[in-house]
Write a structure and sequence with these properties.
heterodimer, A: Alpha-Beta Plaits, Alpha-Beta Plaits, 2 domains, four-stranded antiparallel β-sheet, 4 helices, 29% helix, 40% strand, B: alpha/beta, Rossmann fold, six-stranded parallel β-sheet, 20 strands, 40% helix, 17% strand, globular
Chain lengths: 168, 559
């Protein structure tokens, strides 16, 4: 049995009403459990790009790709290379307590995050990076027990080099 | 030429070669029906008793001919009544176009009267679907729908047309019938791999599924089987792909398959699967399925390769082309041991069947009924069924003499499918059509008798009446300690009177002689349906049987 690992799939779909529903409805119907999914515009106005993170073995990956390719509005499905560039953005609101203020600001500095809102009670931090970096930052804030609210975008990813998926 | 949306819709159907549609009008389909009235010399509309009947009729129409079946319904309940029929077509890969009206665009999303999001409802049970926002897209959406429905692995497509789009006017210009998107042809390296597996096999078994059923491959398969000394079995959906009288043919395998066919598949060292999706009913416990065999799989749908069963060579593309190329490369072989083995299995099967016959408490056993049907049915008879024991007996005993002669709900197992489907099949082919049904299934959609009577559609209805929901009862007998929860019907329905009330002829029979006479009389009736209420034993079993979740080693051959 292949070891379960996470892989990133990029999907070009028609930029049309209801296409995202078609994709996510298929996941439900076929029982795929998705870790993260993002969707947005691309270099071609007629297509949207969906980035899907899935943990699973080779069988799960093959099934997901096959079932995606069967959808009529799906134009291109690619598993991204392991060394692809993955980025995620998080907004996290933490308590501005004098006891931890210096530690939090130091962490913001080390993680190259940004404080984007600062009041007596709270500060809101914006952080971008590889999902594992964001996980680490969340763990740190949990350690201080100061998280008020947080929101992550899910992964967007591109392969390195000049190739695009559409001409691959 | 400027036409209304409704007129464009009907004209596009005509343009795509549609001559018959099945449906039921309603408030949001009234414009479509007005257009059907206008073009009634070019397209026939059959009014069914219920939209579900229309969807099954479109399905039966398609199964019997390979053409795209078309059904029409209004919004809301009309549309949701199509759902079971669309799902039935989806699970069996039947090309169908379902058209629904919807409330005007301005009322969409406001929970208006008879408004339903039918494209949302049918998302997982259609190959694709359309909500037509703009009249400019209407004709092309319909053309695309036909192309999608019949290309690759076929399936149903739904088009939802809001009323304002039906009423708007737009330029229409007729186009030609859309062609199927050609399937890719397999790479020669894969064909060569398949050939070397075939040439190395000692116990080859050719396994036909629904993906091969309508392709007219019967003779080619028989020729290959004779040359390489292989035996042939099929899935439920593969029935009628090859004529039953082929001496290499062992019949259906699987949960209720022929003993010899299932056992031979277990013993085979090579399974050459053509248009098969290895469904759970065919494989039993998949972890124990065909462990000793190499598997070659041909399919038009790439997602079917390695989905349920991992295969040694999976070949995507035009199934007939791949088959022909593989067959050309296959060497002539002789496998005397394999022949002896299969002959012994066949002997056992005959013995088990005879034992079951001898144990019957009523003179009219299921097998006797099918012996008589086989003896009397004219050439090219279409056999349709509902779902349950009668369906499995039909699959086991009916002798097919042509392709597309078996019309039955396999994947979804839709009770109530049969009568609508029989009407559709008869309208499509004009050939003798026999519906084999049970009292449970027939009770679900018997209202379509009204349709068959109104349009004088001769369908011979063999109602195998045991007063129980026999298939569930069989499971209750075997696995639930004979606790017959809600499977004893005891409904007091007089099916003869009921048929007569609809305007159909009917007979009640209890012996083989009576059945034979009634069947003759029914075949002679050419202007409407005939019901033969046929009494059978409530405890007649469908055998053999693989217990649910079991494998071929667990096969049950005796009560």
């Amino acid at each position: 049995m292949e070891k379960k690992n996470q892989f990133v799939i990029a999907v070009y779909v028609d930029n049309k009403f209801g296409v995202l529903t078609r994709v996510t409805s298929m996941f439900t119907r076929r029982g795929f459990n998705i870790d993260a999914l993002t969707v947005g515009e691309t270099e071609c106005p007629e297509y949207s790009r969906i980035t899907i993170c899935l943990s699973g073995d080779g069988y799960a990956r093959e099934q997901l790709i096959n079932q995606l390719r069967k959808l009529y509005n799906v134009k291109k499905v690619e598993v991204l290379e392991d060394d692809c560039i993955r980025r995620e953005l998080m907004l996290i609101k933490v308590k501005n307590s004098p006891a931890y203020r210096q530690e939090v600001l130091a962490a913001v500095d080390v993680y190259r995050a940004k404080v984007i809102d600062y009041t007596v009670e709270e500060m809101c931090i914006e952080i971008t990076g590889d999902p594992s970096k964001i996980d680490a930052f969340v763990e740190l804030m949990k350690f201080y027990d100061i998280i008020i609210e947080m929101c992550r975008t899910g992964v967007v990813a591109l392969e390195r080099g000049s190739n695009t998926l559409l001409n691959k | 030429m400027k036409l209304t949306g409704a007129e464009i819709l009907v004209r596009t159907l005509i343009e795509q070669g549609v001559t018959d549609v099945f449906g039921y009008p309603g408030g949001q389909a009234i414009n479509i029906y007005d257009a059907l009235y206008k073009y009634k010399d070019e397209i026939n509309h059959y009014l069914t008793a219920h939209e579900q009947g229309a969807s099954h009729a479109a399905d039966g129409y398609s199964r019997a001919t390979g053409k795209v079946g078309v059904c029409i319904a209004t919004s809301g309940p009309g549309a949701t009544n199509l759902v079971t029929g669309i799902a039935t077509a989806m699970l069996d890969s039947i090309p169908m176009v379902a058209i629904t009206g919807n409330v005007p665009s301005t009322l969409i999303g406001k929970d208006s009267f008879q408004e339903i999001d039918i494209t949302g409802v049918t998302l997982p049970i259609t190959k694709h679907n359309y909500f037509v926002h703009r009249i400019e897209d209407l004709a092309d959406s319909i053309r695309e729908a036909f192309q999608i429905a019949k290309s690759g692995r076929p399936g149903p497509v739904l088009i939802d047309v809001p009323k304002d789009v039906q009423m708007a006017t737009y330029e229409y210009e007729a186009q030609g019938v859309v062609e199927k998107i050609p399937l890719p042809l397999a790479k020669q390296t894969q064909i060569d791999e398949a050939i070397s597996l075939l040439n190395a096999a000692e116990r080859p078994y050719i396994y036909i599924g629904g993906g091969a059923a309508g392709l007219g491959m019967g003779d080619a398969i028989r020729e290959l089987a004779e040359r390489i000394d292989a035996y042939i079995g099929c899935t439920f959906m593969g029935l009628s792909a090859i004529n039953t009288d082929c001496d290499r043919f062992l019949g259906m395998q699987g949960m209720h398959g022929h003993y010899a066919s299932s056992m031979a598949q277990k013993d085979a060292d090579l399974i050459f699967a053509i248009g098969v999706r290895f469904s759970d009913r065919a494989t039993g416990n998949v972890s124990k399925y065909a462990k000793g065999a190499k598997i070659i799989q041909l399919d038009p749908d790439f997602a079917e390769i390695n989905k349920n069963v991992c295969v040694d060579v999976g070949i995507i593309g035009d199934v007939f082309d791949s088959f022909t190329r593989i067959a050309q490369g296959a060497a002539e072989r002789k496998h005397p041991e394999w022949r002896e083995k299969v002959a012994a299995l066949r002997k056992d099967e005959v013995r088990f069947t005879a034992e079951a016959e001898a144990a019957s408490r009523t003179p009219l056993t299921p097998k006797r009924i099918f012996d008589i049907i086989n003896e009397k049915k004219p050439a090219s008879t279409v056999i349709t069924t509902d779902v349950g024991q009668h369906q499995m007996w039909t699959a086991q005993y009916v002798k097919f003499d042509d392709t597309r002669r078996f019309v039955s709900s396999g994947g979804l197992g839709t009770m109530g499918f049969g009568l609508g489907a029989a009407i559709g099949a008869r309208v499509a082919t004009g050939d003798c059509t026999v519906l084999v049904t049970g009292d449970g299934s027939f009770g679900m959609n018997l209202n379509e008798l009204a349709t068959a009577v109104s349009y004088r559609i001769p369908v011979v209805i063999v109602l195998m009446n045991n007063g129980v929901l026999g298939m569930v009862r069989q499971w209750q007998t075997l696995f639930f300690g004979k606790r017959y929860s809600n499977t004893v019907l005891d409904r007091k329905t007089d099916f003869v009177k009921l048929a007569e009330a609809f305007g159909a002829k009917a007979y009640r029979v209890t012996t083989p002689e009576e059945f034979g006479e009634a069947f003759d009389a029914a075949l002679a009736c050419t202007d409407g349906p005939v019901v033969i209420d046929t009494a059978i034993d409530e405890d007649a079993f469908v055998l053999p049987m693989l217990p649910p979740g079991g494998s071929i080693e667990d096969i049950i051959v005796r009560k």
